[in-house]
Amino acid sequence: MGKINWSRVLGCGLLVGIVWIVLGSGVTALLGRDFAVLPNNNLGKPTTGFLVFNVVLDLLEGISIVWLYAAFRPLYRPGAKTAVIAAFAWWFIVSLGAATWCSFGFFPPNTVIPLMIGTLPALIIATLVGAKPVALIRVVAFDFGHALVDEERDVSVPLESRPVHLMPEVPEILLLIPVPMAVWANTRTATASDLQRFLDRAGIGRFFAWVVTSVDAGFRKPAPQFFDFALRKCGLARDEVLFVGNQLETDIAGGQEYGIRTVWLSGKYLSEHR
Predict the structure, then answer these.
(1) Residue 31 has what pLDDT?
(2) Contact 121, 239 (CB under 8 A)
(3) For residue 274, what pLDDT is reported?
(4) Which of 18, 175, 203, 229 has a CA-to-CA distance to 148 between 20 and 30 Å?
(5) Using CA atoms, how far apart are residues 120 and 127, in angstroms rounded to an integer?
(6) Is 242 left (phi over 0), alpha (psi -120 to 50) or beta?
(7) What ranges do the domains of the chain cover?
């Protein structure tokens, strides 16, 4: 499981909170009139302190909902479905609190139930808005064979002594990528250290902050455990990486099934190796 990007949780959570303030005010105006005029409620004649407190509370609610979204995302993938699940989970928690207050006799249920019914769609809409922004790509990860290196030449020569045959224009392309890069490779026996030494010998090792191999991970692409291991090693969430590979069955299908954005290198980049 990738880590939670707390800066995005905070930023998107504040956005959810702002939308929730607007929509929640509308729900209260339409469905909460009886609730607002209750003698033990300040909604009828709110003070400045009361308004400030509720604005802060709504913003914190927005952050909490996006935190739930980020926590659920590895299970259900990024998108509208996960946003709806997070919004419903938060609404359910709040509804339990409201039910508790009603059971203690603080508020009549008939004044709270319409508010809770109207709150659910408002929370879902606010969460969908906050979950929509696409994460910036923080890292570009490359497959090794036939994405960076021609793996069909001198294939019988051990990696430590194999002549270097880079794919066309690899050094020039790497120079143009403005974010950190990684290598995520299926290997038979080579470890990350073995691959790093080859990359250094090829003159491109300096471009890569991380090297991940299936030997070190204990799983080969397209297994989700490989991508779990790679994200942990790189300290990334799955929506923060772009994976570039040449094998549809392993690189592209595996990455997309896991929820990672991918780029397929076709044509001259295809090979028989898996």
Answers:
(1) 86
(2) no
(3) 47
(4) 229
(5) 11
(6) beta
(7) 6-131, 139-269
Alpha-carbon distance 274 to 271, whole Å?
8
Q: Which of 227, 223, 264 is nearest to 244 (CA)?
A: 264
pLDDT tens digit string along 175-196?
989 889 999 999 999 999 999 9
The pLDDT score that the predictor gives to residue 78 is 73
d(CA 209, CA 230): 12
Given a contact cutoff of 8 angstroms between Cβ atoms, the answer to whether 60 and 17 are in contact is yes
For 181, phi then psi, to 5°, come to -130, 160
Structure pTM?
0.57
The residue behind tokens 């990334």 is: 236
pLDDT in tens, 122-147: 999 999 988 866 456 889 999 998 88
Residue type, 60: L
Segments of the chain scoring below 70 in pLDDT: 1-3, 40-44, 46, 132-136, 154-156, 267-274
DSSP symbol at 241: E
Among residues 181, 182, 202, 201, the alpha carbon closest in space to that of 192 is found at: 182
Superfamily of domain 139-269: HAD superfamily/HAD-like (3.40.50.1000)
Cα–Cα distance for residue pair 183/177, rounded to 1 Å: 14
Kindly give the pairing relationship between strand 208-213 and strand 261-264: unpaired
Give residue 113's Cα distance to chain centre.
Answer: 34
DSSP 166: B
